[in-house]
């Protein structure tokens, strides 16, 4: 399969190429860490969620590549991690390790002759503190989405997007553990295929998947199932990340027969975008706020693959509000046939569960 020529008339061509390069390089660092699976390198953040040397290293590498590839552009990034915990007493060793990993990955790649100091690493991490918002351009990065999956040895994604005047215009997502062709039924695991996939999309130009090295590339599109009885659905692997009472009630209302496929991270959006399944939904407990980096990249990949991404009331997601997403009640990604049916079932289920008044 030879790669199709780059889309003509794509105003984000340079950014698209830089974003793909950034997530592919970050994926190499993550793969290395996951192979060693150094549980000792897992820290717990103030919000009690885990973070690893790979989350930090990935964020540093993505910032580095974007700055090197797009030197004339103003750099603003809304990213998940920052240097706060690494500046605390006792974090010297972990900072040293991150710096070493980043420098080794840059050296192995050979694109840049640059060596970062520990201070450079801290400064690069803090380059992700932008508030984003409705004006200007901002990169949005989740350096490892699905850290819990990453630690378990399961699915995770390096998810990058570009926001331009409040709208997501580009997404690039590396999924190092996702089969290149299609997933089987078991939590995103390999079905003997080549493993590793890089999904990307720019507004108006469609969505593609390629191997992490870029040797094979193809256009992707969402499935065309229009009867929910034939649909399968993805939801978070982690029980705390979505209300399963609510989602099983929605599945029942829709007459869905297939059991849920539970996988970590925005790999769920990617899998929906290429038609591995029909629906991805998540209904967070306590209507907790969602962050833009958990959805920006995945949502444009799905919409450019011909799908829709809405909140539980059927509204578009609003990425222009800063670090948190404007949405109501939950997130649904599916095709245009199923979306109205899923929104209707979600509204009913949420009323019954007492989540909506
Ligand atoms: N209690 C909770 N409820 C909802 N989402 C949560 C959560 N704890 C963590 N998350 C979010 O869920 C993301 C993972 O998505 P998924 O549940 O689809 O695998 C996490 O991203 P990180 O792993 O980047 O921190 C985190 O932002
Ligand atoms: Mg996290
Ligand atoms: Mg995340
Ligand atoms: Mg993350």
From TrEMBL:
Query: Which cofactors are reported in the record for this sequence?
Result: Mg(2+)
Biological process according to GO: inositol phosphate metabolic process; phosphatidylinositol phosphate biosynthetic process; sulfate assimilation
As its record notes, the protein acts as a catalyst of: adenosine 3',5'-bisphosphate + H2O = AMP + phosphate; adenosine 2',5'-bisphosphate + H2O = AMP + phosphate; 3'-phosphoadenylyl sulfate + H2O = adenosine 5'-phosphosulfate + phosphate
Q: Which residues bind Mg(2+)?
A: 80, 142, 144-145, 294
Q: Which SUPFAM superfamilies match?
A: Carbohydrate phosphatase
Return the broad EC class.
hydrolase
Q: Which UniProt keywords apply?
A: Hydrolase, Magnesium, Metal-binding
Q: Which Gene3D superfamilies match?
A: 3.40.190.80, Fructose-1,6-Bisphosphatase, subunit A, domain 1
4Fe-4S as a keyword of this entry, yes or no, is no
What EC number(s) are associated with this protein in UniProt? 3.1.3.7
- What is the top-level taxon of the source organism? Eukaryota
Q: Name one GO molecular function term.
A: 3'(2'),5'-bisphosphate nucleotidase activity
Question: Which CDD domains does the entry mention?
Answer: PAP_phosphatase
Q: What InterPro entries would the database entry show? A: DPNP, Inositol_monoP_metal-BS, Inositol_monoP_superfamily, Inositol_monophosphatase-like, Inositol_monophosphatase_CS
Question: Which NCBIfam families does the record match to this protein?
Answer: bisphos_HAL2
Sequence similarity: Belongs to the inositol monophosphatase superfamily.
Described purpose of this protein according to its UniProt entry: Converts adenosine 3'-phosphate 5'-phosphosulfate (PAPS) to adenosine 5'-phosphosulfate (APS) and 3'(2')-phosphoadenosine 5'-phosphate (PAP) to AMP.
The protein, known as:
3'(2'),5'-bisphosphate nucleotidase
User: What is the source species?
Assistant: Oryza brachyantha
The gene for this chain is: LOC102700102
């Amino acid at each position: 399969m030879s790669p199709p020529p780059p889309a003509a008339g794509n105003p984000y061509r340079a950014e698209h190429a830089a974003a793909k390069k950034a997530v592919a390089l970050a994926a190499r660092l993550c793969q290395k860490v996951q192979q060693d699976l150094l549980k000792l390198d897992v820290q717990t953040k103030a919000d009690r969620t885990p973070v690893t040397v790979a989350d930090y290293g990935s964020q540093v590498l993505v910032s580095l590549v974007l700055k090197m590839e797009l030197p004339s552009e103003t750099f603003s990034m809304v990213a998940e991690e920052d240097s706060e915990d690494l500046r605390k007493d006792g974090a010297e060793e972990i900072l040293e390790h991150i710096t070493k990993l980043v420098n080794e990955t840059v050296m192995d790649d050979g694109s840049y002759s640059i060596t970062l100091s520990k201070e450079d690493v801290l400064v690069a991490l803090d380059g992700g503190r932008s508030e984003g918002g409705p004006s200007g351009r901002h990169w949005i990065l989740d350096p490892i989405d699905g850290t819990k999956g990453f630690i378990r040895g399961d699915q995770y994604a390096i998810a990058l997007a570009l926001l331009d005047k409040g709208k997501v215009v580009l997404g690039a997502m590396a999924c190092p553990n996702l089969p290149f062709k299609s997933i089987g039924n078991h939590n995103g695991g390999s079905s003997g295929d080549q493993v590793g996939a890089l999904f990307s999309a720019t507004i108006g130009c469609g969505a593609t998947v390629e191997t992490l090295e870029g040797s094979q590339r193809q256009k992707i599109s969402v499935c065309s199932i229009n009867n929910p009885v034939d649909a399968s659905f993805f939801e978070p692997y982690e029980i705390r990340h979505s209300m399963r009472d609510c989602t099983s009630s929605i599945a029942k209302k829709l007459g869905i027969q297939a059991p849920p496929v539970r996988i970590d991270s925005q790999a769920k959006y990617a899998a929906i975008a290429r038609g591995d399944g029909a629906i991805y939904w998540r209904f967070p407990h306590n209507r907790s706020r969602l962050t833009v980096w958990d959805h920006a990249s995945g949502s444009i990949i799905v919409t450019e693959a011909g799908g829709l991404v809405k909140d539980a009331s059927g509204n578009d997601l609003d990425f222009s509000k800063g670090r948190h997403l404007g949405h109501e009640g939950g997130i649904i990604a599916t095709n245009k046939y199923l979306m109205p049916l899923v929104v209707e079932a979600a509204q009913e289920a949420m009323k019954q569960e007492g989540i909506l008044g």
